Amino acid sequence: MANWRQKPESDKELWSLMAPVAGIVKWVKSRRGLVVGVGILKGGTGKSTSVLYLALYFARVLNLRVAVVDTDDNSQSISRWVATHTALGNNVPFELIVHPTKGADAIPLKKRLKSLKGQYDVVVVDLGGGDKETFIDLCAEARLLLMPSAPSGWETDRIQATLQTAARAAVLNPEGLDVYNFFVKCDFNSTLPEEEREAMAIDLSEEDEDFVPPPFLHPYFDISKAPHHIRSWNVMPRRSELEEWGLLVRHAMKGIIEEDAA
């Protein structure tokens, strides 16, 4: 499923925006683990659902060894999802790593990620809503940071602060960090995504001298408000329902692969 309200002029144009699947697998296998962070310094923006679908795509479609790191001490949505589907007898195709950010068992996320990189092809990190130290550790180790939100000011109001923190933390990252925003929960019969992109670019730049332009993925790759996203709490997503997330991954990875080749 793709955002056909923003339909490309041709299939050739669409394919030109994405890395081939074989190219992504080859690139990942040649590295010592791809770390993908998902989140904004704010709760309730669709992080855990995004983490789930991204992890399922990497594991089930690309056949990569995947770990999901749950850093969200408050809700632990991914951990509870795994427990639910394990109890239902469903095969969960990724390894769950619970990362407490507080208490006696807490260790820096940077230290945990360094140990996981050699064990898994892809490590997807579900960020908590407001733990700045954990977020900074992630930006120092991840190759890709994806920031999901619905096209609404209620959800996007912390994007600018998150971008500024990511920019400061990324200087600690020896491999470089690519950061992208994308919209979830999109009704493609409305113009809300376009309106919110314009509002963010105008309002934030006027209010903040240190404005960092929101680096949005192409509108073709907005994620739909499909019923299966809601049902996925109890129903394991089918392979066909991972398609739009696969297009998003292929779009985000294209730039990374080309940067490294250059």
Global morphology:
globular
Indicate the structural class. Answer: alpha/beta
Order of helices and strands: HHEHEHEHEHEHHEHHH
Instruction: Let me know the average pLDDT.
Output: 87
Q: Quickly count the domains.
A: 1
Give the second-level CATH assignment, the architecture.
3-Layer(aba) Sandwich
Largest sheet: 6 strands, parallel
Strand content: 5-15%
Radius of gyration (Å)? 17 Å
Low-confidence stretches are none
CATH class: Alpha Beta
Q: State the separation between the terminal residues, measured CA to CA.
A: 31 Å
CATH superfamily: P-loop containing nucleotide triphosphate hydrolases
What is the β-strand count?
6
Query: What is the share of helical residues?
Result: 40-55%
Biggest sheet strand order reads 3-2-4-1-5-6
According to CATH, the fold-level topology is Rossmann fold
Number of helices: 11
Write the layout of secondary structure elements.
Layout: H1 11-16, H2 21-29, E1 34-38, H3 47-61, E2 66-70, H4 77-87, E3 95-98, H5 109-117, E4 122-126, H6 132-141, E5 144-149, H7 153-156, H8 159-170, E6 178-183, H9 192-207, H10 227-231, H11 243-261
Helix pairs in contact: 2-11, 3-11, 5-6, 6-8
